[in-house]
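Help! Submission page says 'invalid entity' but I think these are all valid:
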Amino acid sequence: MALNLSETQVLDNIQILLEDIQNEFVKICNLVKGDIALILDPELSLPLSLCVDPPLLKKCRVTKLYELKDQDFQTTITKLFFYLKPRLEMMSLVADYIRSQEKVSSSCEIFIVFVPRRSMICEKELEKLGVLGAASLIEFQMDLLPLDGDILTLPNLSFTRELIDNDTSQLLNIAKSLIKFQVFFGKFQTIDWIGEYSGIVSDILQKTITSSFSKKMENSKVDQLIIFDRRVDLLSPLVTQLTYEGLIDEIHGLQNGNVLLNPEVLGQRGNKKIRIPLNSTDPIYSLIRDKNMSTMGEFLKRTIKNIAEKYGSRTSAKTLGELKDFVKMLPPLQKKHHSLGTHLSIYQDLVRITGGGSVLKKRIEIELGMLADGEKHFDYLKELIYREEDINIVLRLLCIQSIVIGGLKNKQFDFFRREIVHTYGFEHVVTLTNLEKLGLLKKKEGGNTFNSLRKNLKLFDDNFFKTNDISLVHSGYAPLSIRLIQKLFDNKNGWKSIDDLIKNNLGTNYGSIELVPKEKKSQNSKIQNFTKKLCLVFFIGGVTYAEISALRILSQRENSNVEFIIATTNMLNGNQLIRTSFPEKEK
Amino acid sequence: MDNPSLTWNEFDRYFYEKHDFYQMEWEDIDLSNYIVSASRFGGLLALILDDSKVIQINSVSVKHRIFIYTSSGVLISQIDYGNKKVKGVGWTLDERLLVVYEDCSVMIYDIFGEIIKTVLMTQEKDQELVYRTVVWENGIVILTKKDRLLVIESMDDPKIMEYTLPLKLGAVTAMEIILPFFTFSGHTEVLISTLDNRLYILAEKSEPLEIELDEGIVDLVISPTGKLLAYYTTSGSLYVVSTDFEKNYLKFNCNTKGSPKQISWCSGDTVLLNFEKNNLLLMVGPSQSYLQYYYYEPIHLVTEIDGTRIISNTKCEFLRKVPEVIVPIFQLGVSSPAAFLYDASEAFLNVTSKGDETIRMILKNRELTLAVDNCLEAAGHSFSLEIQLKLMRAASLGKTYLDGYYHDDFGIMAKDLRVLNQVKTFDIGMCITYTQYKKMGVGLLIERLVNRRFHYIALKICECLAESKDRVLVRWACDKVKSSGSDEDILNSIVSKLGKEKGISFASIASVAYSEGKKKLAIKLLDHENSASQQVPLLINMQKPERALIKAIESGKADLIYLVLLHMINDPDYSEEKLFGIIQNKKIAINLFVKYCKKKDPGFLIKLYSELKQPTKIGLFKIVESYQTNDFNEIMKLRNVSSMAFSSSKNTFFKKMTDENIKFLNFQKQLEEKTPLKVIGHTINETLTILIKREYYKEAKRLKKMFSVPNERFWWVKMKALASKHRWKELFDFANNEKSPIGYEPFVDICIQNSVSDQALKYIPKIKEPITKVKYYLKLKKFELAANVAISQKDQTLLDDIRNRAPKNLKIPHNI
């Protein structure tokens, strides 16, 4: 079974990863007999919901579910499973829970399940708190999980903070997840990496691949791995996503492939938000998710007409056979019909928000102006601050401005920083420092590196409608990240052809590793001549929906012979990126 | 050799045989003076003097000692345990000796008497004494004299559980356990019989189950499969029941005076009773059949999975049900394919043609594969070398007639037999049957050999069976390290033997060297270790933190790095300077250290930052910290630290912002003192807003000036503040007072937002751009006004556009 035939098969195979993790969960629950209470690290609720659903919980005799919080805790259930990220600060809470539970019943069976891996410092802390002996410690290696047919995430890792802190401690876990991936799908034949973190992960992979891989894994289903360090391109996440999916994420926020909408968006009443799953199993959504908002209207109209015609065929159906065909068509048609209604509502709402005369439209125009020609819009930025616009929005645009003009002049730099601190609070001194650390905001020193990037990599293309270029995901701006990946396929020499650009303008490094000897590869490629090459792109530090759309567009180009699976530590958008630079409010 | 079936006893539809393993090597041992404890799978014997026997022992050296013998009676070691009183002895599967002392302490020894582990079952202050104990392969049950029942299920992870005993526990006659993997609860269950005709079943976290019987139990034994219970009663009857007490299988009256010294299971459902005083070993089968063996010396019974080992002063024997595969080959008057093959093979040796005909006959009947397989298996189960050889020969001959026979089976059996016969020699003394060997596994056999320090044989067995040699080599090296000799010689001999092997844990060898006090040797050995997880902890123990840290960083494992860091933090020997000195220039270590300190030890973090000369980070960290408190003075204190830090890092902008913030906080403080306003915690903009809303204009102005708020921002803030209070007149005055630096569109916007279109209209004329004016007029549906603008601008298209949008009843002029 080849992975690389169609999108549905990509999904089928990827499901193995989910099943494996679910089996692991069942195994852990089966360590005890009788009813079980789960106590979750709040940061794990969402990730766990990706793989553990209510029926599975029921099957595993989980009758109670708690979040680990600073509160009184008691339960009558005597089998307790704590699911924890190895976060040092949570251990004292765990100790409190265990102690109070021991008062209730002396015969508890307590398991502390570390996700994804045990941590020595947490264990030491538990020991110090005197509860290590009361519990058994285990690991739940929740690694790459499918978010959609072609998207995998590492839900237990939040890697964004690490971008600022230069924290490499999670890279080993990332590498381990990729090793596990290969256990299921075979060895990668080549690895291309860009950025420091990617290099480290690639190193670990190379070491393990040469030392401990079984023959079984020789049969690789995924030809290529590309590892992308988010810090190579932090600009693209800041740019407003203008695909249908991207815009939903910008406006409403997508979580685990779901969106929560106010009922009025869908023309319904009530106060409770409505959860809509958005993924490739929705027949309409999979068609429109990657489309630019401005072409959506036309597309939706056509689809409506198409469905109406099919419904209409009932009246023209005369023979019994024709009627039968019509009836056969009904269930998928109804599903489409329903889905179409939902998307029309969401689309109309988005049009209202982004339409002519709207604040957002103006902002997008300004943003595109900056990206296209390096226009300066200081007055507009100033006004945003004076209007006390959302700080995320202000900082996103300010950072874009800073990048495209190669940094702000001294006076402007101080002026904006001061206005932001006065308007949004003194603590944002820290935020500004972090943005500087990330290179998103800077004082003008030396030349403008962005200009040559834009020119050489064609980061701006007005003609995207005609050319079906990836720049359509931002209405003109082509994400730098994806342009770089595109180079690997468009140019025979790959990144070597832009060596200078990567090393000097981006100030980073790259590398390429052949893991399968040439002669073997040629054998394999003979077999694979007729199918598309399958490529896993791993984003360390997050990827946006627009970037994923851009990759899909790349693989759908006429002469393309590659299909992408996207793996990421987390999904990312501009607001989230900005927020990670806020001061940590934890202790 | 005669046909082996001649020694068989037919019993209860089956055949039983007794095989002599060894004539005991020991001399002058009278088992009646000793308590014997044997390790399963033909393993070692531990002998300890029976205190309850009042006998004259001439030699002092026998007291307070445990003697360890092989099953062939070769003395391996003596363990001197001092003045304690032993209450129970048992063996772990890998032949560590478990000894329970009367004071509730439990010790695990290796066979050479080295203490591996000590576990205290009760607090010392309680001064509890052991009344009875049961020791099994990995666990212990203790009944104390204060009537507490304590259970440990795994000595590897000794968690002590206490089971609830019945309120009134009569005098205990016997105690036995059902192993965890046989019980429904998954935990050990304990059976206790008492003099008052009761049997209790005790399990973790449950009330005792009480069974009342017609007569008292003297002794009871659970079968090796955990399914059956045999007990002997005061009236001299043997009962066999299922362990759930649902089924009674047997009641047998032994008609023998006195109680048996020992009850044992033998090959499944047969029970052996050792009436030592009557010189009788009684075998009782499920259908009331019985067999009597007479012994004129004391014996000890060892239950094995496929029979019973019988140890006497002179012999080591094995009593078992003859394996079913052997029976039809040798049983007289019965013929089977395997028997034919066996006979044919014998005929071949005698060079008669009969053999060939016989085999072709079997082949024709399509029974040759079965015959070969049976001969092979029977060879495995046979004790006699000669019979083994004959059976193997028969199998070998048979398989030459078969196309596509899977030859590996033959090779495997040949190797297995070589191994079994080798370890059976009396100097090793492991009398393991083929069934036991398959059950225990090669791993355990090798472990036992290595524990006995038979490294060479263990290694040869590994080679013969193509098993990994790593463990054996490491254990050899560990013993080598302990031996005398120069470090260099030891290292050379270890490296020359092990250096080329993959996956050898040099760390465990180094660890032994270290604990033996050979530190230099340990460090040299550690250099050969490939796994950082093994290397690092040991380097820490050896007080080589910097080396450990480097290795940890190379591995990329955060846990290992933390291991080193935490060790240095907690170890008083490492001063801060020393610690900082070590982690300096190690970026990853610093990052992790910072992460840890932020959560656990902020004070240390500041020290680190100043050591690393990063005052800006101190300043920023103090800012973050200040947002976790509401105490004004505390905030000011932190702010001052930040200010100083920024000034020493020459970060003028941050310094300025921080000083300004200090000034601002003071301003707010004064404001709160003078006025009823609550402003602390608010930004400059928010404070301005509050002041304007509450009409403290003077203070607002002062604030604006003090912090040089740009005019434009001030206008925005004031405009929004007034609008939010719906002070429209005031807003209009404000807008007219001087020329707006922000234009008038914001004023229109804010009025429209607040749905006061009459107010909005007031500002539109002030807007410069005619087209913007029109836009707003249209938004407010003032089409005539919009038209006027178009007319004054002489813009015909604009006018037409306006007319098109206007309702039909409005009279918009057609031309300018």
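Support: the input was valid. A stray whitespace character was the problem, and the output above is from the cleaned input. Chain B touches chain A through 48 residues (CB under 8 Å).
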